[in-house]
């Protein structure tokens, strides 16, 4: 096999660095005049001093973290801070949930409006917010974009007018210049509402560390931010000790990126657009050859990422071209020789081009395409392991917090726990231990507004606050009036079925839900504030019987209208999770808290594959979620009831959506029911506990819900 050509690093590093320095200095000056201030600047320091003084006087302070237009997943987080308890998350509103535009980079108007309603319910308003902080250091981000566009000039100059990365829209980013004035006028708070620009990866790192079970431990905790891109680089490493965090390394590169590698290949090989391709391609890898010794593409593909000393990862620019043209011409010929030509932008989402597992019996190229997905996952995992190996060696710790968009790869996360076992620590650190790892519920950019607000509170001297145990923070719980209004539709039938505000009422509704699921029903649960982040965790979930071997096909085909490639996740009590999956000891901190958020896969036990086939993926794993009674009493009661009906306290759980964001409002919930012909019923819980069931009405009424409900009532006497 011919040795591959290798070229790492930019062609014009000095010119690029000079462009960065000049742009950053100019950007800081220009943006400060427009109300956007750097985190270590004079205005920020005055604000920090004021907040510190108010906290010491015993006041309660509010800080808002703002994800602004121009970068994906815009939204706002509101944090309440006291000197006694530190920051407490009130809301983390993702704009996409309200607007219906997935991964939106629009101004977060709906998210801000909802946050204001929360404040007003508390007897406060926008004027009571002590600081607005942003999720990106905008002068640094602008300078990084200029640096990247100069690195490979003239070829890379195209980046000034073309999509650079999934996170960034240059056209929308221009709105940032007017943001401070827009907010000031919108809220009547003066000509400008000052904003403080917080470093993107610092936000990722601080939130993820302080939310983890490790935050109160005195020994060192390693933190890895592995991202598509930040405002300075795409890989940043930190160490936290005695409550303080310091950055150890940043790669200062947008394209020496694990996230960019996976995004570009998953899109150009799988046939989906950026931000939609990554999870699908990870799912596809399970059907490919995941053996490094036998996969026909792995040995050649791994040359794309050069793993160097000090845990460095460098893009081989002799093979990849996404440093200059990520959308239209992402490959050089050596990479085409391995993977074939990339799919063109106009082919994405085309049914003839998209990778479909179900085509494996009648399209000869499908098996090859699945092996390419597996090779991509294996190379990706190699790079993750390489970075973390170095970080654990230099810090000498066995505690790791993993975050950034890359940490959404649940399969790769599991591989880290498997790789850094007792034998590795005996060799590398000379002690008997193993890796203990935690991934937050929102490792990607929807979690960064929380981090920006929490980090700013820390800079003002607030204690860290309590670790997180759930993710129900997006939007307000639905009112009874909101639900009844949404139910007034001619094509939807509905009825009140009880009230969950008492244990008896909650258990009865949970038993009705379990009874329907046990008889082959597919139902949705809509309750409380929504989950923040990309996973449904019991507040906006579609539920089904995990013991039914046909339910995955039925759900994907008739309920979600999505590819057969997509796995279904198991939702379980802790005991059921232990009974049917091999839970890693390295994820056991906080009573296996790391499994609360569907960010880790686990290998099923042999009896699991036989008993719960619907939630065991093709590779024998499940992306598990453990439900706690204290966090979600109704879903926990449903799982206990399901144990009585089907013999296992576990359910299929998939997000309550159809080809769009997770349903946020009651109207969106009913619209999702309307569009999903295979969904039997939706259970909607109002903020006063009143609970309704809705199902297809008129000619679409199958009679299934009314039949199940009548039989259930009769059985209970």
UniProtKB/TrEMBL annotation:
Domain Carbamoyltransferase C-terminal: 514-684
SUPFAM superfamilies for the chain: Actin-like ATPase domain
Stretches assigned to the Carbamoyltransferase domain: 71-453
Coiled-coil intervals: none
Pfam families assigned to the protein according to its UniProt record, in alphabetical order: Carbam_trans_C, Carbam_trans_N
GO molecular function, a single term: catalytic activity
Family membership noted in the UniProt record: Belongs to the NodU/CmcH family.
Protein name: Carbamoyltransferase
Record organism: Bradyrhizobium septentrionale
């Amino acid at each position: 096999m011919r040795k591959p050509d290798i070229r790492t690093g930019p062609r014009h590093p000095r010119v690029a660095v000079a462009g960065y320095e000049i742009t950053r200095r100019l950007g800081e000056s220009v943006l400060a005049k427009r109300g956007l201030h750097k985190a270590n600047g004079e205005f920020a320091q005055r604000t920090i001093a004021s907040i510190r003084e108010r906290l010491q006087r015993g006041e309660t302070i509010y800080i808002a973290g703002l994800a602004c237009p121009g970068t994906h997943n815009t939204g706002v987080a509101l944090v309440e801070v006291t000197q006694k308890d530190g920051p407490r998350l009130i809301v983390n509103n993702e704009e996409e949930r309200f607007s219906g535009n997935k991964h939106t980079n629009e101004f977060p108007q709906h998210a801000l409006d909802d946050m204001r309603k929360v404040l007003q319910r508390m007897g406060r308003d926008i004027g009571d917010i002590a600081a607005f902080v942003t999720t990106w250091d905008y002068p640094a981000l602008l300078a990084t974009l200029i640096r990247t566009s100069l690195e490979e000039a003239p070829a890379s100059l195209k980046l000034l007018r073309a999509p650079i990365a999934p996170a960034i829209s240059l056209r929308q980013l221009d709105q940032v210049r007017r943001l401070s004035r827009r907010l000031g006028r919108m809220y009547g708070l003066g000509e400008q509402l000052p904003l403080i620009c917080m470093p993107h990866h610092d936000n990722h790192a601080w939130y993820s560390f302080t939310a983890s079970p490790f935050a109160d431990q005195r020994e060192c905790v390693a933190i890895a931010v592995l991202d598509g891109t930040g405002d300075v680089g795409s890989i940043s490493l930190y160490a936290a000790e005695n409550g303080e965090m310091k950055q150890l390394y940043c790669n200062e590169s947008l394209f020496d990126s694990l996230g960019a590698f996976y995004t570009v290949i998953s899109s150009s090989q799988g046939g989906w657009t950026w931000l939609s391709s990554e999870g699908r391609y990870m799912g596809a890898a399970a059907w490919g050859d995941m053996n490094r010794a036998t996969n026909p593409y792995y040995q050649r593909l791994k040359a794309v990422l050069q793993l160097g000393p000090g845990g460095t990862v460098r893009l081989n620019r002799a093979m990849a071209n996404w440093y200059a043209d990520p959308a239209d011409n992402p490959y050089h010929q050596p990479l085409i020789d391995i993977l074939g030509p990339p799919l063109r932008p106009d082919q994405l989402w085309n049914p003839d081009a998209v990778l479909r597992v179900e085509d494996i019996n009648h399209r000869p190229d499908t098996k090859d395409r699945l092996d390419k997905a597996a090779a991509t996952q294996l190379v990706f995992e190699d790079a993750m392991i390489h970075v973390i190996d170095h970080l654990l060696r230099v810090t000498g710790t066995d505690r790791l917090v993993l975050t950034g968009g890359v940490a959404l790869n649940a399969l790769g996360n599991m591989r880290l726990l498997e790789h850094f076992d007792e034998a590795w620590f005996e060799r590398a650190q000379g002690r008997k231990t193993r890796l203990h790892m935690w991934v937050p519920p929102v490792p990607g950019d929807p979690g960064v507004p929380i981090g920006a607000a929490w980090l700013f509170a820390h800079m003002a001297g607030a204690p860290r606050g309590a670790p997180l145990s759930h993710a129900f923070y997006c939007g307000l719980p639905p009112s009874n009036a909101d639900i009844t209004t949404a139910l007034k539709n001619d094509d939807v039938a509905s009825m009140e079925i009880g009230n969950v505000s008492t244990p008896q009422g909650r258990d009865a509704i949970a038993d009705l839900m379990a009874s329907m699921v046990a008889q082959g029903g597919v139902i949705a649960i809509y309750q409380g504030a929504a989950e923040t982040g990309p996973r449904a965790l019991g507040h906006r979930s579609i539920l089904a019987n995990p013991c039914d071997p046909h339910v995955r096909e039925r759900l994907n085909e008739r309920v979600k209208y999505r590819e057969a490639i997509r796995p279904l996740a198991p939702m379980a009590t802790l005991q059921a999770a232990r009974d049917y999956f091999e839970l890693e000891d390295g994820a056991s901190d906080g009573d296996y808290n790391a499994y609360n958020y569907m960010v880790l896969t686990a290998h099923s036990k042999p009896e699991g594959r036989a008993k719960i086939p619907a939630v065991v993926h093709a590779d024998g794993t499940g992306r598990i979620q453990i439900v706690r009674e204290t966090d979600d009493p109704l879903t926990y009661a449903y799982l206990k009831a399901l144990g009585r009906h089907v013999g296992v306290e576990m359910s299929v759980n998939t997000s309550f959506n159809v080809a769009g964001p997770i349903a946020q409002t009651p109207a969106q919930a009913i619209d999702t029911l309307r569009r999903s012909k295979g969904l039997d019923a939706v259970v909607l819980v109002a903020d006063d506990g009143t609970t309704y069931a809705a199902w297809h009405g008129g000619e679409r009424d199958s009679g299934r819900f009314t039949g199940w409900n009548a039989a259930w009532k009769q059985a209970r006497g």
